Amino acid sequence: MSKKDGQPIRVALLGCGTVGSEVARLLTEQAGELAARAGAPVEIVGIAVRRPDKHPELPQDLLTSDAASLVVSENVDVIVELVGGIEPVREWLLAGLKAGKSVVTANKALLADHSAELFEAADASGVDLYFEASVAGAIPLLRPLRESLAGDRITRVMGIVNGTTNFILSAMDETGAGYSETLDEASRLGYAEADPTADVDGYDAASKAAILASLSFHTRVTASDVHREGIADVTASDISAARLLGRAVKLLAICERVRDDNGVESVSVRVHPVMIPLSHQLARVNGAFNAVYVEADAAGELMFYGQGAGGAPTASAVLGDLVAVARNMVGGGRGPRESAHAALPVRPMGQTPTRYHVSLDVADIAGVLAQVAQVFADHGVSIAAVRQRDRHSTASLVVITHLAPDAALQSTVDEIAKLDVVHEVVSVMRVEGED
Ligand code: HSE
User: Fold this and answer.
1) CA–CA distance, 109 with 114 (Å, rounded to integer)
2) pLDDT at residue 435, rounded to an integer
3) pTM for this structure?
4) Which residue numbers are catalytic?
5) Nearest-CA neighbor of 165 among 203, 217, 127?
6) Ligand 1 centre distance from Cα of residue 204 (Å)
């Protein structure tokens, strides 16, 4: 839908919580500036919230609890969705797109699982679908992937995309405390939700990884394609083992374009804790901050850093999208469509090449190192480095491997744990950022 110069762009806001209220505030306070940038005034014409009586601070004439009617109203040009979750939001946005409304959303779970049908509906109506705020809050990341790097070939995207887990891991590293007590402290300080499952079990990061991989590799990747492990099993021993080796533990979303021995390409998308060298830029990202590292053939290495959550930072990304939609309406064009032409297969985690760090307490007697090394050899896993430290009658043995299929590494660790000479498997973690 195009707009004549000066005609307002009419916005329906769905949800008015932490981010929505900041979007409403900034749209009001910066109305003149935004109109100048967009080429037309951008005005909120309706706000859908579950309980209008709970929002005395908002203009009462704009409030409704009937989102389903608002999204198809003739008076609306753009829907800004900040409710979250899949249903009924999916239904609302599909109805809005079919009715010719452009959509700006921060909804990572919806985009991760339903982007194909949302893009199809947007195409059928010739309208826009923007979702910069769905990954890494304020950080301009999806637009660089979709537009700035559209002429390049992205090979890897690796990042800290969940602030809650990064806050917890950073605090564990700083204090030496265990996971449970650090999670309690993060909840007390307001850094973790009352129900932290989506963050600590990696669901939030997995949705974001699916979006990043889809855009980077021009391939549809959904959250169920993403191998996911959270941080609940990370121990104080893992963190101190990492420290001893000059590494930090981070929960990373890793999206890679991989090629097998026959030259067949696929994508690997995973979320799990890793050890990365302290010299790597991602190791220095602490607290609730997000950072994403991108590798592309021509561009080389790029790094994006900033606030991944919060009202005003997320509203910044939403408003950037809103101005883009408004400009497209005024200029008569459209933003980028779905790009899924590569349609690469997703490689199962077991076949994905990874590297492991394994830290063991073993008996300090002749032949132990040979026994342990034999198990690695039996599974075709090549050892990159071994360190041993004596501790009276036991020894601490640290093994770092070369790249091997993840399933081979898992079976190696399972078998090593059963050796009589192994007293304890102290820490097992994948290693990234060194190849
Ligand atoms: N819960 C997310 C985080 C923010 O902790 O980073 C929203 O994606």
Assistant:
1) 8
2) 60
3) 0.96
4) 208
5) 203
6) 7
